[in-house]
Amino acid sequence: MIKLIVIIFTFFINTVNSFASDDIYLVENNEIYLENNENVLELRENAKEISFQSAFNILARKILDPSDIIKFEQLQDIPISNLVKDYQIQSEKIDDIKYYANISINFSKEKVKDFFSKNNIIINVLVSEEYLVFPILKKFNTLYLWEKDNFWYDSLLQEYDQQSLLKLFFPEKSHLNKFKITPIDLINENYLKVEKFLDFYKKKKALILFLEEDFNSNQNKFKSKLITKVFSNSTFKEINLLNDEIKYDNSDFSLVELIAKDVIIELENWWKNKIDDFEITQDKRFEFDILIKTDDLKNVLYIEKTLKDILNENELNIKEINQEFVLYNILSYFSIERLNLALESKNLKIKKSDVDNIFIINSY
């Protein structure tokens, strides 16, 4: 009989009371399997090193433009452990044959940015504002949205990575939501109902993911069709999310779970493509000034910190300060449009002032 030992504990490095994280830089659930050599300390150390490498590869693919992935893969002797802020061994399992560990790694935002900057690699950490998701399923001529048995909703939520650059919000399945908005309201593009629903949840944008699954009883085959729309500024816009829908035709079984997996991946790519519309170029810099009134010091400090989190070191500098305002100078590869995309998640927007090349930042 195999003896099984289960150890579950929390392990902190460089923290006292909490596992601090910037969501993007936190890579969770790195599962490591090793052959048991009966040296627990050595196994744990090996698992840690493997998880660091795996997690950093995952992080790189999340924050780097596709064109820079090849450059990243050519780097050698990366000091990954130096880039780790803290980590947790969530659980360990050891038996006579195998060693298992589940490890979450939190990388240092500053050190990661510095590492890629020194290697002339641009990182992409623009987080979207939250999109409210309407997952509509039509199956056997029945529409599902907030019903408990809407497994399209469940599959999408299961596949969604909370640390993604694209932030999604799934309203709970409830009778209250059923009264507030129906699948027919969404299919018929009732923008007043959508806006009222978004206001209730304090959101500004939405994604309508309408999956229709038919079953051909003569052929005993499933066929699926997806319609995706973005709602913003009282307008619906259809986007082509799945380019190869033919692979979802004539299946022997339901493909809802597979489609959900593909949809989440393609939604993340869709967001990256939105970012790429304002591509950073190393040979072009933008310079402009931003004026912030000092009547609310807390707001000044918040906006300054937000801009510093987005921009590279030394790209934001105080040009003038007095009792009425602070004037910041920005010299960056970020255009106004790209900065505004980055500020969406903070409900901030840069706007032109009455003075040439001076901008202001407003909440919206």
Q: β content, as a range?
A: 25-35%
In angstroms, what is the radius of gyration? 24 Å
Low-confidence stretches: 1-21
Helix content: 25-40%
- The secondary structure category is alpha+beta
Mean pLDDT: 86
Distance between the termini: 64 Å
List the helices and strands in order: EEHHEEHEEHEHHHEEEHEHEEHEE
SS field, number of helical segments: 10
The best one-word shape is globular
Q: Tell me the total number of β-strands.
A: 15
> What profile does the largest beta sheet have?
6 strands, mixed
Question: What descriptors fit this protein?
Answer:
disordered N terminus; six-stranded mixed β-sheet; alpha+beta; single chain; five-stranded mixed β-sheet
Blueprint (SSEs and pairs):
Layout: E1 4-7, E2 26-35, H1 40-63, H2 66-73, E3 84-95, E4 98-107, H3 109-118, E5 131-139, E6 142-144, H4 151-159, E7 168-169, H5 175-180, H6 183-187, H7 191-200, E8 205-216, E9 221-232, E10 235-239, H8 256-276, E11 286-293, H9 297-310, E12 316-321, E13 325-332, H10 336-343, E14 348-352, E15 358-363
Parallel strand pairs: 5-7, 5-8, 11-15
Antiparallel strand pairs: 1-3, 2-4, 3-4, 5-6, 8-9, 9-10, 11-13, 12-13, 14-15
Helix pairs in contact: 4-8
